[in-house]
Amino acid sequence: MATTSATAQHWIAGARLRTLPAAVAPVLIGSAVAVHADEGVLWKALLALVVSLALQVGVNYANDYSDGIRGTDDERVGPLRLVGSGLATPAAVKRAAFTAFGVAAVAGLVLAATTSPWLVLVGAVSVLAAWYYTGGSKPYGYLGLGEVMVFVFFGLVATVGTTWVQTQEWGDPGWASVAAGTGVGALACAILVANNLRDIPTDEVAGKITLAVRLGDRRTRFFYAALVALAAGAVLVLAALTSTWALLGLGFLLPAAAATRVVLSGARGPALIPVLQQTGIAELVLAVLAGLGLVLA
Question: The whole model's pTM is what?
């Protein structure tokens, strides 16, 4: 396998930039909750964004590496994978993953040093969760637990953590950030559900028992729709806890409804790829519009 055939464009594709809204959204809305409480701290918000983005890129490269060496990507339908396509060696992709995790760790250590030492533990658990999603001898992503961890870490932990490092208090901002984290977390899960729905046939062959494989095609489609509904409910709760201006976040239903129609129509394989992008846009729209409402309030 050649070590130099992967170009910069291939590495950028391997980082899967279309997934980055899932990293940006919780930081945006978590920061908006802090601003609504008159306790926003810009430089801490930016550091939290670095942590979230670096973890997301690290997860993407780690999944590329782990799925590649297991052969899960040998018959891949979705976007380019570096190891599975043979463009980069597993060792190179693994280094890229841990470089991204290192960036997240450095930014996280600065936040911990200026906020609270216990954040080091949260950061360490986050990195371990990122690696063992598809890494290690018993990856939890192969056991149907991926959606749970995405909801926890790219929903609740990222959002609540972003709010807390700026406010350093629980109270009203804390509960509001839980509601906000539930909304973006549900849509982050929906991205993964759509991805795994597309990959059910190849994952079954490869022995990757995702939640979609466990639920089956039909129930996975209804689960996607339920996650969109949960996100809408979370916006309503956020508005009840903060301001009716947060209802602007329901604007996410425009791209989410389009994606849901595709999912419920029975689309398969490559036809589901646009759903990932639409769901990522929906998550970002929720964060931007609900966050704007909180700031205006």
Answer: 0.89
